[in-house]
Every structure is written in C-alpha cells, then in structure tokens.
Amino acid sequence: MKRLISAALTLVMLVTICAGMTGCNPSEKIKSPSTLESESFTLQEGQTAVETDSGVMLDFGCLLEEGEKITVEKVKPTSVDSDVEITAYNFELSSGQPEGAIELTIPYDDAGLSGEDELLSVCGKYLNEQTSQWEDVFYRVDTEANKVHIITDHLSTYSVFKITNPTKRSAYISDVNVYAAYMTTAQAE
Fold it and tell me: What CA–CA distance (Å, rounded) separates 46 from 50?
C-alpha cells in the first residue's frame, strides 16, 4: 500500500513539474502578455469608435451592431531589450474579427526624445501569436499629440515601441513608417 501511495505521489509531482516547464505543454507555445488593466465598452446605436480613459482609441470607420462589446486590455509583454520601452494593448471584439480596416491610436510618452528623434525612435508593432515575434504594421507617428496611429484589418495585441538608445534603432524600426523618408544620411548611419 505504501508503494502504491509513493508511486502515485511521484507521478503527480512529475506531471506538475512537467506542466510548469516551457515546452512540456504543447498548447502553451508562447507566453501571453500579462494584463495590467482592462476596459470594456458596449456599442450604442450609430457608434463607430471607442476611447479608453488613457487615450487609446479604436475607430472602425463603419457602424457595428448595437450591443457589440469591445475590450481593451493594457498588457505587459516580455521585454525585447533594455533600450526599448513597449506600451502594448490587446483589442477584442465580442463577435470576433471586424470586416475592413481599423485605426488604432495608442499614446506614448516622449520623455527623453527630441522632436527629430521622436519620428525615428517611435513605431507601431503587432504581436504575432503564432511566432511570438513583434511584426511591423502600417503606422503614423503624431509627434504633436504623442500618439501612434496603426492601420490594421484585425484585432490582436498592438504596441508602441520607443527606442531609448538611438544606436539600436535599426534593430526595431523598419521602413514601414512613412517618416523614414525624412532621415538624413547621418541619422541612417
């Protein structure tokens, strides 16, 4: 009887250890960002956009069904580098994915950036849950309002990357930004 209990306890411990280890549970291929805060909205008749208390905005550009629920969660993703500040949000629509283009607006803190650096040090990204990689999106930086406008066709986790070390810009910001044309040769080097 003691051997049976010992064997059962050993099996339970092994299963518990394995389930907690990365790679042991095939359904957990990526680590999702942890939720810091969440706001939900129920759309009213004629409403096409919502804005959170912190200034994050979703604009669908067209009417959605009245009663549709939108959830915006501020999340803390895994850091990619000590010289990159990430402000990320997960966006969900109760009916799934909307049809057509969506504009997401995410505010950022410009502390430590000059006006010239701001255009080149701030960008929008999307977290591909299949690859666990941040990917480029079409975005525009509004340096007057300190907001990044992202155009997409699906809801997921989106972010603003703020590169605090100018020598690392090329590793994170690609030519998807329409302002890349304003770079001088010295800045590019």
Answer: 12
List pLDDT tens digits, range 77-122.
888 878 889 999 999 988 888 888 899 999 999 888 876 778 888 9
Residue 75, helix vs strand vs coil: strand
Three-point CA angle 88, 62, 160, nearest 5° = 15
The tokens for 51 are: 């804005």
- One-character DSSP codes across 135-160: EE-EEEEETTTTEEEEEESS-SEEEE
> Any residues with CB less than 8 A from the CB of 174 and at least 6 apart, and which?
123, 136
Query: Could you tell me if 100 and 134 are in contact, meaning their C-beta atoms sit under 8 angstroms apart?
Result: no
pTM, entire model: 0.70
Amino acid symbol at 122: V
pLDDT tens sequence across 125-170 = 999 988 888 998 999 999 999 999 999 999 999 999 998 876 655 4
